C-alpha cells in the first residue's frame, strides 16, 4: 500500500516509510484513547491536501470494521462533528477536552480494555485476503493474518521492524 524501503539497521531488517507525511501510530494515545492522535493527524492532513489517497476511503468511516469507525462507535461521536472540532481547535488537548465532554464516558480501565481488544483481534480469512490486497508488499514478507492491526500499520509505515521468519 505504501512506498517504503528495506534496510538493515543494527542487524535487523527494517522498513523506512518514504511517504512525505508522518502519521502517529494507531497505538499512540491521547487522554487514554488509542487512535485519536492518528485521527487528528489524518483530518488535518486531508484539509491541507496532504493526506495520501490510500487513507481517504477510510477517513472517519462509520464502518465499525475500520479503525476510524471503531473509534466513532466506541465513543458515540459523529464523524462530521469530530472533523469540525479537529479543524477548529488548535491543539490536541483542546480536541481531547471536547471528546471527553461529548463522548460516551469511559474509565481508564475501559479505555485500556478497548485498546487491548483491538490489539488482540485477528482477522478471519476474508479480512486476511483484504489485508493481502491492501498491503501486498508487506504481505510478501510477513504473515499479515497473524499481526495485530497496530503492528500491521506500524510495520507498513516503517515504525516497526519486520519480524524474523
> What is the topology, as strand order, of the major beta sheet?
1-2
Describe the main β-sheet briefly. 2 strands, antiparallel
Radius of gyration: 16 Å
Mean pLDDT: 88
Contiguous runs where pLDDT drops below 50 for at least 5 residues: 1-9, 14-18
Order of helices and strands: EEEEHHHHHHHHH
The helix fraction, in percent, is 40-55%
Look at the helices and sheets and give the structural class. Answer: mainly alpha
Total beta strands: 4
Q: What characteristic shape results from the CA principal axes? A: globular
First-last Cα distance: 21 Å
- Beta-strand residue percentage: 5-15%
Detail the topology: elements first, then pairings:
Blueprint lengths: L3 E6 L2 E6 L11 E2 L2 E2 L1 H12 L5 H4 L10 H9 L3 H10 L3 H11 L5 H13 L4 H10 L1 H4 L9 H8 L9
Antiparallel strand pairs: 1-2, 3-4
Mind explaining what this structure looks like?
The chain is mainly alpha-helical. It has nine helices and four strands, in the order ββββααααααααα. It has helices spanning 36-47, 53-56, 67-75, 79-88, 92-102, 108-120, 125-134, 136-139, 149-156, and strands at residues 4-9, 12-17, 29-30, 33-34. The protein is globular. Residues 1-9 and 14-18 have low confidence and may be disordered.
Short précis:
With 165 residues, this protein is mainly alpha-helical. Helix content is 49%, strand content 10%.
Amino acid at each position: 500500500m505504501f512506498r517504503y524501503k528495506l534496510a538493515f539497521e543494527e542487524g535487523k531488517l527494517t522498513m523506512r516509510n518514504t511517504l512525505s507525511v508522518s502519521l502517529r501510530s494507531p497505538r499512540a494515545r491521547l487522554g487514554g484513547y488509542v487512535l485519536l492522535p492518528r485521527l487528528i493527524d489524518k483530518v488535518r492532513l486531508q484539509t491541507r491536501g496532504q493526506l495520501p489517497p490510500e487513507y481517504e476511503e477510510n477517513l472517519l468511516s462509520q464502518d465499525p470494521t475500520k479503525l476510524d469507525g471503531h473509534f466513532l462507535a466506541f465513543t458515540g461521536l459523529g464523524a462530521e462533528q469530530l472533523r469540525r472540532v479537529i479543524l477548529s481547535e488548535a491543539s490536541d488537548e483542546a480536541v481531547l477536552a471536547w471528546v471527553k465532554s461529548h463522548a460516551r464516558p469511559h474509565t481508564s480501565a475501559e479505555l485500556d480494555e478497548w485498546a487491548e481488544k483491538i490489539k488482540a483481534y485477528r482477522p478471519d480469512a476474508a479480512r486476511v485476503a483484504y489485508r493481502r490486497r491492501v498491503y501486498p508488499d508487506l504481505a510478501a514478507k510477513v504473515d499479515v493474518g497473524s499481526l495485530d492491526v497496530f503492528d500491521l500499520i506500524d510495520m507498513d509505515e516503517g515504525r516497526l521492524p519486520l519480524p524474523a521468519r
